[in-house]
C-alpha cells in the first residue's frame, strides 16, 4: 500500500491500484506531504511530534481510502495538543523492532539523545507516548534513524555549527531529556 502523512496531520493508506490511477495526492491547500512511501500492511509507523510524543500506528489499522482523497486526521486516531501547537515533525516506518538501530532526537534548545528502536515498541497504542522529556519553552526539531558510523551536524539559526560522531551521543530511555549538544547563544536556536 501507499501511505501518506501531511504536516497538518492528515494520514491515509491507499492501494497501489488507486495510487497509480491518481494524477496527484489529495491534500488541503497550504498543506504539504512530509511522508509518502510504499509499505506493507504489516509495517508500523512511528509518528514523532514536536512535544516529545510519538504515535505507534500499525499500517493495517489505517483506513483504506482513494489516493486523491484527503484521508483521516491524526486526531481521529490519537490527539495532538493544539493548545501547545503540537505538530508532526517526522514519520519513520518500521518493519522489525528487533533491528539493531537507534533513533536520534534533538530539540530547539540543543538537547540531544539516542534511543534504541526496540524501546519504542508498545502493545497499547490508543494514545500518544513520550519519547523525549522537554521543557515548556522547548520543542523537538529533528528525529531520524542513525546508522553507525554516522557524523551529526548541529546547525543553529545564526549559522553556528558543531560536528561530532553519533556514537558520542549516549543512549537514554524514553523519559529522559538528553544532553546539551551545542551552546546556544541568546536569540538563537537549533
Give a structural overview.
The strands form four sheets. The protein has a four-stranded antiparallel sheet with strand order 3-1-2-6. A four-stranded antiparallel sheet has the order 7-4-5-10, with no helix packed on it. Strands 11-8-9-14 form a four-stranded antiparallel sheet, with no helix packed on it. The protein has one helix spanning about 15-20; strands at about 1-5, 10-15, 35-40, 45-50, 55-60, 70-75, 90-95, 100-105, 110-115, 130, 140-145, 150-155, 160-165, 180. The protein is built from one helix and 14 strands; from the N terminus they run ββαββββββββββββ. The chain has about 190 residues and is mainly beta. β1 (about 1-5) and β2 (about 10-15) form a beta hairpin. The mean pLDDT is about 90. The termini are far apart. About 5% of the residues lie in helices and about 35% in strands.
Blueprint of the fold:
Layout: E1 2-6, E2 10-14, H1 16-21, E3 33-38, E4 44-49, E5 53-58, E6 72-73, E7 88-94, E8 102-107, E9 111-116, E10 129-130, E11 140-146, E12 151-155, E13 161-165, E14 179-180
Antiparallel strand pairs: 1-2, 1-3, 2-6, 4-5, 4-7, 5-10, 8-9, 8-11, 9-14, 12-13
Supply the key terms.
single chain; 190 residues; mainly beta; four-stranded antiparallel beta sheet; 3% helix; 37% strand
Describe the structure concisely.
With 190 residues, the chain is mainly beta.
C-alpha termini separation = 35 Å
The main β sheet shows up as: 4 strands, antiparallel
Unreliable sequence segments? none
Helical content band: under 10%
Overall spatial form: globular
Helix run count? 1
Element-level helix/strand string: EEHEEEEEEEEEEEE
- Tell me the radius of gyration: 17 Å
β-strand number = 14
Structural class: mainly beta
In what range is the share of β-strand residues? 35-45%
Strand order of the largest sheet: 3-1-2-6
Assembly type of the shown chains? single chain
**What's the average pLDDT?**
91
Amino acid at each position: 500500500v501507499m501511505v501518506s502523512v501531511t504536516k497538518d496531520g492528515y494520514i491515509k493508506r491507499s492501494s497501489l491500484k488507486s495510487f497509480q490511477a491518481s494524477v496527484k495526492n489529495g491534500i488541503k491547500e497550504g498543506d504539504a506531504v512530509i511522508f509518502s512511501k510504499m509499505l506493507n500492511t504489516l509495517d508500523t509507523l512511528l509518528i514523532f511530534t514536536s512535544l516529545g510524543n510519538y504515535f505507534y500506528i500499525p499500517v493495517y489499522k489505517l483506513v483504506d481510502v482513494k489516493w486523491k482523497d484527503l484521508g483521516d486526521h491524526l486526531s481521529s486516531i490519537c490527539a495532538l495538543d493544539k493548545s501547545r501547537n503540537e505538530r508532526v515533525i517526522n514519520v519513520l516506518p518500521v518493519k522489525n523492532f528487533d533491528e539493531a538501530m537507534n533513533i536520534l532526537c534533538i530539540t530547539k534548545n540543543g538537547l540531544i539523545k539516542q534511543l534504541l528502536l526496540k524501546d519504542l515498541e508498545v502493545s497499547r497504542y490508543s494514545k500518544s507516548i513520550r519519547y523525549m522529556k522537554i521543557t515548556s519553552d522547548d520543542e523537538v526539531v529533528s528525529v531520524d534513524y542513525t546508522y553507525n558510523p554516522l557524523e551529526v551536524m548541529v546547525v543553529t539559526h545564526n549559522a553556528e555549527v558543531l560536528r561530532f560522531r553519533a556514537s558520542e551521543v549516549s543512549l537514554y530511555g524514553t523519559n529522559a531529556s538528553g544532553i546539551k549538544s551545542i551552546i546556544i547563544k541568546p536569540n538563537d536556536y537549533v
